[in-house]
Amino acid sequence: MATTTAQDQELASALVQAMHLLQDLHAETSRPLGLTPQQAHLLCVLLGGPLGMTELSRILSIERSSLTSMVDRLERRELVARIANPADRRACHIELTPAGRALAHDAHNAVVDRIEALTSDLTVSTRRTLVTTLQTILSRA
After folding, report:
1. Which label site among 45, 80, 106, 118 has the fewest CB atoms less than 10 Å from its CB?
2. From the CB of residue 73, how many other CB atoms can be counted at a distance below 10 Å?
């Protein structure tokens, strides 16, 4: 039976605190843009291209009914559009409109700018180590 060391707890605690900080930054940067953090996340995900509702639900970790409501609100604001899925008439893909793309870039850049401000004094070596470590953790998730 493995035991949890103080070092393990310190790492877990630091990662959880970082997660909360990033969630707070996301919320703080979304509000001035007139978006909830979840809406900003959806728009930023769609920067990679149109996605189906099932895939979006999985990526955003939300129920399909909640996603439908969110897409409805964003569609009324003309930030996203539903497009027919040529492979399945019953399904649709969600894509950004030009206004949605611009707002998604604004949301993304606002978070990146805040993170940059928090990490600007890190050395190149520390940044490289942090990026490599986080990429390793993320690849195992």
Report:
1. 118
2. 13
| Closest C-alpha to 26, from 114, 121, 99 | 114
Contact 64, 73 (CB under 8 A): no
Instruction: Compute the average pLDDT of residues 2-18.
Output: 84
Residue identified by tokens 């919320």 is: 27
Q: What angle do CA 103, 49, 99 make, to 5 degrees?
A: 25
pLDDT in tens, 84-134: 877 787 889 999 999 999 999 999 999 999 999 999 999 999 999 999 999
Residue located via tokens 């850049």: 109
Task: Please list, in sequence order, all residues whose beta carbon lies within 8 angstroms of the beta carbon of residue 123, skipping any fewer than 6 positions away.
Answer: none
* pTM for the whole structure: 0.84
Phi-psi region of 4 (alpha: psi -120 to 50; beta: other; left: phi over 0): beta
pLDDT of residue 1: 52
Task: Please give the Cα distance from 34 to 78 (Å, whole number).
Answer: 13
Residue 27 pLDDT exceeds 70: yes
